[in-house]
Amino acid sequence: MNLLTDHLLPARTPDGAIISCDLPGLLASYVDDGIVDLPFLRRHQEASWHCFLVQLAALALHRAGEADIPDSADVWRSLLRRLTADWPDDEPWRLVVDDVERPAFMQPPVLMGAGDPHKAPVDTADDPDVLVTSKNHGLKQGIGGDASAEVWIVALVMLQTCSGFLGSGNYGIARMNGGFATRPFVALQPQGGPGAHWQRDVSVLLKRRD
Q1: ∠ Cα 146 182 40 (to 5°)
Q2: What are phi and psi of 110, to 5 degrees?
Q3: How much is the pTM?
Q4: Which of 66, 166, 185, 198 could share a disulfide with 170, CB 3.0–4.6 Å?
């Protein structure tokens, strides 16, 4: 399951049709604001997913020295692969790899010789999601046992965008400002769909990079 080549991401077009995209195809569709919404996203996941797509696009364009946002899936595929040139088999873009010493999508490799640190399997896609309520009210966890690939993909994005302190030895991500802090998302959103919002923010990041 390779995000660069496999159509793992369902998206709704303005005429109501559901299409399936790979990640480069989704970015290309965003350029003409051709996507109304992504039906696999839950409400609390929308900001993190937007943040991921904006930062990814800005990093890829900056690394390539490009100022214009391309509307070609093939161009996006090439730009994204340049970010992970050390991995010609696209391991960082694969949802699953067989070797724990190799990276997978949003999953860092285990240091060579360190052994597999994973102590227990994650059985459902909503378990790694970071939205937790004290009594498990409102939005239940552990119910996504039959989740498809796109639900696992966004759960990994959520985990690597918003996770804080999860216990001894599990210190979350660098972008959180504290172990138990929240990470607010505030945005100026132009008229249009998620593509217009994405383009606006990518352009701002590129202009203010230095």
Answers
A1: 25
A2: -80, 140
A3: 0.85
A4: 166
